[in-house]
Amino acid sequence: MGGVKQFLSHFFVTGPFEIGGDVSIGLVSLAILFVLTRYKLWGWLWRNWLTSVDHKKIGIMYMLAALLMLFRGGVDALMIRTQLALPNSQFLGAEHYDQIFTTHGTIMILFMAMPFIFAMMNIVVPLQLGARDVAFPYLNAISFWLFFFGAMLLNISFVIGGSPDAGWVNYPPLAELQFSPGPGDNFYLLSILISGIGSVATGINFLVTILKMRAPGMSLMKMPMFSWAVFATCIDIIFAFPALTIALGLEFADRILGAHFFTLNGGGNPMMYVNLFWMWGHPEVYIVILPAFGIYSEVVATFSRKRLFGYTAMVTSLLLIAIASYFVWLHHFFTMGAGADVNTFFAIASMFIAIPTGVKIFNWLFTMFRGRIRMTIPMMWVIAFIPNFVIGGSTGVMLAAAPADYQYHNSYFLVAHFHQVLIGGVVYGMLAGMYYWWPKMFGFILEERFAKWGFWLFNIGFYVCFMPQYPLGLMGMTRRMYTYPAGLGWSSLNMISTVGAFVMGIGFIFIVLNIVSSIRHPVKDTTGDPWDARTLEWSLPSPAPHYNFARIPVIDSRDQWWEMKQKGMTKPDDSTPLAPIHMPKNSGKPFIMGVLFFIAGFGFVFNWYVLAGLGLLGVVITLFARSFDYDTDYYIPVDEVKHSEAAFGRS
Amino acid sequence: MGGAAILLLTGCSPQQFTVLNPVGPVGRSELQLIILSTILVLVVIVPVIALLAYIVVRYRDKPGNTAPYQPQWSESKKLEFVWWSIPIIIVAILGTVTAEKTFALTRPPEPTNNPMVVQVQSLDWKWLFQYPGQKVATLNYLEIPTGQPIEFILTSNAPMNSFWVPQLGGMEYTMPGTQMRLWLQADQAGTYQGRGANFTGRGFAHMTFNVVATSQDKFNQWVQKVKATGTPLTEAGYQALVKPSLAGVISYSSYPMGLFENVVTKDGGGMGNMGK
Ligand code: HEM
Ligand SMILES: [Cu+2]
């Protein structure tokens, strides 16, 4: 009995926050189970969502997960800021504080920003290209479920076993067993290793989709800019994620198998980890910003009623950024003593990235110039992004000046920089994309009143929260301190910053309210083109039918749909006869594989190797079973297509 | 200007901006670069934000807006040439100065043939400073003479940290199995705060230390005093320090021979200097 009790008290983390977490997670789960059972929705959920290989549905699931994780990471952020509001605060102890900033960073980058860009890629790319799905729909579902169960694995660490607490970069030797005993750090490693497999698969999937599945006539230089941005992102994903997998895999070997790659003793070399981590880490920041750049390009052209300015330069700069981002990783540790020659190379390479980035900003400005700007919600996020990114990119250039970085590194100046580019760049971009493509996903438009409140609160809150952090850095405040004494001049700026964070939190609540109220009183999008937009996805009804295009369009210009409208068309050409449509079949295996990976990961986290082995064995069996699946696709008969097109008033 | 006014209103005095108030040549040189880069980026930030405001006001889609509307206009070689050039020029200027300073900062700030050396170890969660020239050591505080370059040699016998005294100059990592080198110098007597800048776990926030800079004479007197009144640091005493804990300031009249070197090499680390 005593043994069991002791086991349980280690297994379940006990403390006021954790018990609160346990209770609320338990209640929410019960509520979900109740609703699903009460309204007999299990079958619906399984058939329509969990087994779906439809890129649009997978995209929507990514987006919901990203919003949930934005909430979870946001709560972490508010706890961090509450702790720092006053000097010598006792709100969180060092132990909790360290866990919370670690899960905050990890969740925001890997389980919020990543799924959000995957959401946008999934929802938009096939529709923009005139394709009926991605190149490998089944693999796409696997990617999603690996991400999902990876994210769940990290999230349960809060209540089971304990969260990781070595920072989102998880540097050894701190993250090694000697200094981080217990399962917390294993949660970090396994959740990212599992979801990382999905990310690489997504990179390959979309690269192939873009190269092979464009509608006839769409040469690369006629491809919409968002798809170009995704193309550049995929190059980064494919070549960067393996470095992360290796870094974390070796760290995993240290922790689980007793190796000494990066340990303090036994001849380990932590510097190797730091290099590998940032060989992924720097491209990663571009992996999340490039799709946002793509979204800005689409939105700005649509709402300026004008062609995107400097298309060729936009493509060139995307590719330059994607490639150059492999040659700058060392700027994250100029202070590791690599020598003046090496530091100089990486400093100048980092500054170089600002050139194509600057060009993009001018091109967006000149897309608006001599246009007609409509202040819709997506456009407001784009306009708010520009000043943020000009400032955040500039402080990036300042950080890239290596000798100056010796004074900024790991200070709040750095914290302010990356939040300005990640929030003002990535989050604003994803929100712009969400508002913009929402009607395409769901068939109704998000209302504007709450959306505006959300926009202004979030945007003002941002500056109040993060601008004070630049001077704080110059006052010597370093990141990851759970407390600080009074008398250093830091107190008032920290208090202001905390106020700003709460204003952003209220902004987020308004965005949620905005979604809820729009669901309750939807403004239907009956035309499929509510914004009078330019690219192919808007030629389809909203929401798009599951086969996307009844007839694959033939492309002859960049803004295909806009040009068609200029010629007086109100819907795509339907003069050619319909043909049966070839589609992939749903499958439960990706979901099952996700569950099995979760079980294996959970086993490794607690060093329960039998469980881990069973999970992995299950994965292998699922793979085998799949390879004997011959019934993986089907044809939609012409009658059915006719019928469903007729429902949209088309033929 | 506005920003400065707001900062003063929040009760921050200019002296509290430690990075902006260097007391030695290294910090001053870095500050020059900070100022130069700030000016260069402002040259972009201000016009771009102004241009954005202008465009958004002028080209709003309002009835009766008479501003030109050219929906097909999307290329201009001349304009594009301009905005490829602006960032290229800025990066060229900043890159040149950066390269120059990066090389300069690996050398002592002033020529010196027999520099004073301080060996720094980061432990969990304390700083141990050894003075090989004086054969004394200190815990969690540092005493240095003014007006001469000091060569800090850094390592760690704990998770990697970073040694940072903003008013003297920028930081450098302390890493297990590695020796790093950092030149700093104080030209003004005074007490300056230093801290660890790379996260090392629970006690990290408390890893602060004061650097007391005094004249050479006073420094010599301090060394004599430590020799006379301090306690010796023994091997056992050192092992106790390595255990994770917080500690106050201590002065040691001596320390075991080869202590620092052993920490660096014990697991196959090299004595070659990094960060030159
Ligand atoms: C104009 C281009 C940019 C330049 C020159 C630049 C430069 C830098 C440099 C030199 C650092 C390291 C500073 C240090 O650790 O002391 C840094 C950190 C960082 N940057 Fe940027 N940056 C740029 C744009 C971006 C963008 C677009 C993003 C993301 C969307 C981003 C995200 C980050 C993050 C997350 C970190 C810190 C990671 C960490 O230490 O936890 N940066 N940047
Ligand atoms: Cu970077």
Instruction: Please identify which CATH superfamily of chain A we are dealing with.
Output: Cytochrome c oxidase-like, subunit I domain
Distance between the termini of chain B: 39 Å
Number of strands of chain B: 13
**Secondary-structure element order of chain B, N to C:** HHHEEEEEEEEEEHEHEHE
Percent of residues in β-strands of chain B: 25-35%
What is the overall silhouette of chain B? Answer: elongated
The radius of gyration over CA of chain B amounts to 25 Å
How many domains would you count in the coordinates of chain B? 2
Q: Uncertain runs of chain A with pLDDT below 50, 5 residues or more?
A: none
CATH homologous superfamily label of the largest domain in chain B:
Cupredoxins -  blue copper proteins
CATH domain class name of chain A: Mainly Alpha
Description:
The complex is a heterodimer of chains A (651) and B (276). Chain A is mostly helical and 651 residues long. Chain A has a single domain (41-562, 587-647), classed as Cytochrome c oxidase-like, subunit I domain (Cytochrome C Oxidase, Chain A, Up-down Bundle). Chain A contains 21 helices and four strands. Chain A has helices at 2-11, 16-38, 42-50, 55-84, 94-129, 137-156, 184-212, 225-257, 270-304, 311-324, 340-368, 377-400, 402-408, 412-442, 449-466, 469-474, 491-520, 560-566, 589-605, 609-627, 638-647; strands spanning 444-445, 523-524, 581-584, 633-636. Chain A has a two-stranded antiparallel sheet with strand order 1-2. In chain A, strands 3-4 form a two-stranded antiparallel sheet. In chain A, helix 4 runs antiparallel to helix 5, helix 4 packs antiparallel against helix 17 and helix 11 packs antiparallel against helix 12 (377-400). The N and C termini of chain A lie far apart (70 Å). The model of chain A has no long low-confidence stretch (mean pLDDT 93). Chain B is an alpha/beta fold. Chain B has two domains: 19-57 and 75-105; 116-266, Cupredoxins -  blue copper proteins (Immunoglobulin-like). In chain B, 36% of the residues lie in helices and 25% in strands. Chain B has helices at 2-9, 25-58, 77-104, 216-229, 235-242, 259-265, and strands at 116-123, 126-131, 136-139, 141-145, 150-156, 161-165, 169-174, 179-184, 190-196, 208-214, 231-232, 250-254, 273-274. In chain B, the strands form two sheets. An eight-stranded mixed β-sheet of chain B has the order 11-12-3-2-1-5-8-13, with helices on both faces. In chain B, helix 5 links the parallel strand 11 (231-232) and strand 12 (250-254). Chain B is elongated and about 85 Å long. The mean pLDDT of chain B is 91. Copper (II) ion is lined by residues 282, 285, 328, 331-332 of chain A.
